[in-house]
Amino acid sequence: MFKFSIIIPYKNNNNWLNDLIESIITQTLDFYSNVEIILINNNSSNFSKEIADYWQQLFPLNIKSLSSNSSDFTSIYDTALKTSFGEHVIFLDENILFKEDILEKVDDFYRNYPDLKIVSVPLGDLNGAFDELNEKYYRSREIIIKDEPQSILVNKTNIFINRSLIHYFESPTFLWDEALSLTEIVMKEGRYGVISNSQLYYREGRDPHFLIQHDVDELQFYTIFNEKVSKIWLEKYKKADEIPQYIQNVLVYIIQWAISKGGPPILSIEEIKEFRRNYIALMNNVSIENILILHQLSQRQKLFLIKENLKYNRKEFKYFFDNQDINLFGDEIFLDSLSKSTFEITSIITKKNRINLLCKLNTMFDSEQISLYLNSQEDKYSKELKILQDKEVILFGEVVEKELTFEVSIPSDDSNFKLTFISIRAKDTVIKLRLSNKSFQQFSKLLLKTKIKNISYDTLKDYFIIKIQKEVSPNKKKTSKNSLVSDIKSVDQNSRLTLYQKIKKRLPRSFKRKMKKFLKKYFHITIGK
């Protein structure tokens, strides 16, 4: 018996298929005695099948070239499994490449942990990029899912499964099927292994997120969720009074893409309504912590789901006050505080001696409880700003909240002005916290000396990298790091001033320190037309 069976369905990707096979047969683990490859042609119209047959002729004992005319993945995988004999099985897409020692590392891990039947390996692109699912690979170890429920498995491509568990694995037709089958296996075992010292690579444009994003554009994604996830799967675990945290994490991770996109145009109004009811029902049965980590959703979208969750579970928001801050909790879970609320400057228009700003307030506090002020630094007077709610927050085709935006105009040459104050009214007390940039006046004066009219800010970034894309005459000397400010002053509308994280290491520290005088630490600035 071979140690590893590698099952590869393919269609028309002859170049990728060639590279994948070469990366397997050149492994540091002896290929002849340890590995078999099952190649399954799925209606290829080019020379892919001939390539698979060629490899079978070279390694007749290790490589099988099969065909399936079925469009049903169940039939394809069943065919492969019946003709494979390896102790551990992995299902691959043809866009994958093996690092040269990956099979040796997995084999070593199985020897060190003989009772483990599932081993997962890191999956990243050829440039070394990883997503958040790879955070669990910081060291090789056994993962107990009760202790690490956030360490989820949703994609078969980077998972080795012992053959004794294969009959639990439903041949996947869609990501939901794949994720649900993997989750059933992991829940049954209660643990799995991860290795950190090797990896698989995926080709450009076909990362795990691509698979999810592709699926949420298809009608079947929603019908499987409506029929299988919400009506069968959730009911099964709700009988135990609480959905296990690991399962919550799997469901919430996958469904967030569908919620944020709003579904494919092919969905009927009734299908949209049914899906909306079902995903809200799901969110009502998961922890608020899981809602907070939905990175595909905005804060206002999360706020709606948290409101629904609290209402369903007969809970409510709670506020805790002190002399310095106000903290917002939902079902004993910390949600936000005034000191953590930020504003995002979405546009700046310079006009004569004034700076006109359009800002968005990033907060979990309800708009009815928020007041914004433009204050004189010396507290000579205070002007309340009107919160605009003209921008709708959509969650799967339904308006659920309003964006909290405001406009403000400040004189650039008045150093007494500070932007901005945020307050929450509670009983007879109003607590105010400054969320201002101490160097904003310096920066605004600098902007007025340029010919640029519009600037957009993204406060989610925290780097300070400058790149000036500007035509430079052949005789003109390069910009020195000490003349940065004067060069910014001379930028015109045909130039772009962009902050790039990728060139971070190229800039000297003195350069970055100089920019911090003008930019708040989490500003990412783009200047253009």
From TrEMBL:
Q: Record's Pfam families?
A: Glycos_transf_2
SUPFAM superfamilies noted in UniProt: Nucleotide-diphospho-sugar transferases
Ranges of residues in domain Glycosyltransferase 2-like: 5-149
Tell me the InterPro entries matching this sequence: Glyco_trans_2-like, Nucleotide-diphossugar_trans
**Gene Ontology terms, MF aspect:** hexosyltransferase activity
Under Gene3D superfamilies, the record lists: Spore Coat Polysaccharide Biosynthesis Protein SpsA, Chain A
Q: In its UniProt entry, what is this protein called?
A: Minor teichoic acid biosynthesis protein GgaB
Native species: Lactococcus lactis subsp. lactis
